[in-house]
Amino acid sequence: MFSVIGSGVAGLAVASELAARGAEVQVFDPAGPPGPHGCSWWAGGMLAPWCEYENAEEPVLRLGQQAIGWWQERTTVAHCGTLVVAGRRDLPDLRRFARRTEGFREVDAELAELEPDLHGYSKGLFFEDEAHLNPRQALADLYADLQARGVAFHATEAPEDLQNAIDCRGLSARDTLHDLRGVKGEMLVIRCPDVTLSRPVRLLHPRIPLYIVPRGRGVYMLGATMIESEDRRRITARSMLELLSAAYALSPAFGEAEVLEIGVDLRPAFPDNLPRIRRTGGRIYANGLYRHGYLLAPALARGVADLALSNLHTEMVDEDRD
């Protein structure tokens, strides 16, 4: 019996991978089922390894490409690609983005065909092989599938003497993972029926790069800041202003959008912003997904399952480090 501690995207992905390989699993989380208490709830859900490679290390590109297939076996995945655009004065940023990544084609006249509701953009980069999902639906689907497989969920603290424990508590694991830090992210959920976008759109903005992800029925997730701060209490006026201003720059119709939700939370990250699997004090710790929760959770889960079931070491494994 394996005991997974934490029911965010890391914990549920690990439990799902173990259960899929025939292992007995139980999950402990005192907060109960997935919800707004966890940073996984507030994610964008972009499965975009080629875009993320623009400012990430090579493992994000390589391991992230496993995510689309893994998730489409477990939840609904939209295979619409990602569009990256920049205003006329920011076209040098678009060229820099192109130099730092791969897996795209340049679009100009086709841009209006891809997203007719974008205004004032004549050039872009289309990452056709990327995809996205609704994080809340993905969490619910993992949770329901695990229950159907007979996995027991305990809304309690995990006992200290658990055998075969796998700790996926995110930032709460700093009591053992002392080099873990929190990176603040702020986001908005808005409704704007007057705008129809078919895919995630990234705007290269001089102050705050923006992404907007369609959730259906005129609802969009708008995010997200990356702030080296551990204040998870509130969104700043500056962040809200810049997020909404960038959305308005994509389409003036967003000026009439209704703000449905404001989300603020802390992403767990190690110094190099790459996830780690550590075996310390008889427990396996899986953590540090940073801003790549849904993109790298499948690779993290596979690495944990390899280590837990067969003692196979992946590149993420970092043994007995205090």
Concise structural overview:
The chain has 322 residues and is of the alpha/beta class. The protein has helices at residues 9-20, 49-52, 58-64, 67-72, 91-99, 109-114, 135-148, 237-250, 293-310, and strands spanning 2-5, 25-28, 46-47, 82-86, 105-107, 124-127, 131-132, 152-154, 165-167, 181-191, 201-204, 210-216, 219-223, 258-269, 276-280, 283-287, 317-319.
Kindly describe this structure.
Helix 1 (9-20) runs parallel beside helix 7 (135-148) and helix 1 crosses helix 9. The chain is built from 9 helices and 17 strands. It is of the alpha/beta class and 322 residues long. It has 2 domains: 2-52 and 133-179 and 271-310, FAD/NAD(P)-binding domain (3-Layer(bba) Sandwich), CATH 3.50.50; 82-128 and 181-269, D-Amino Acid Oxidase, subunit A, domain 2 (D-Amino Acid Oxidase, Chain A, domain 2), CATH 3.30.9.10. The protein has an 8-stranded mixed beta sheet with strand order 5-6-4-11-12-13-10-14, sandwiched between helices. It has a 7-stranded mixed beta sheet with strand order 8-2-1-9-16-15-17, covered by helices on one side. A two-stranded antiparallel sheet has the order 3-7. It has helices at 9-20, 49-52, 58-64, 67-72, 91-99, 109-114, 135-148, 237-250, 293-310, and strands at residues 2-5, 25-28, 46-47, 82-86, 105-107, 124-127, 131-132, 152-154, 165-167, 181-191, 201-204, 210-216, 219-223, 258-269, 276-280, 283-287, 317-319. The protein is 28% helix and 25% strand. It is globular and about 60 Å long. A hairpin with a 2-residue loop joins strand 12 (210-216) and strand 13 (219-223).
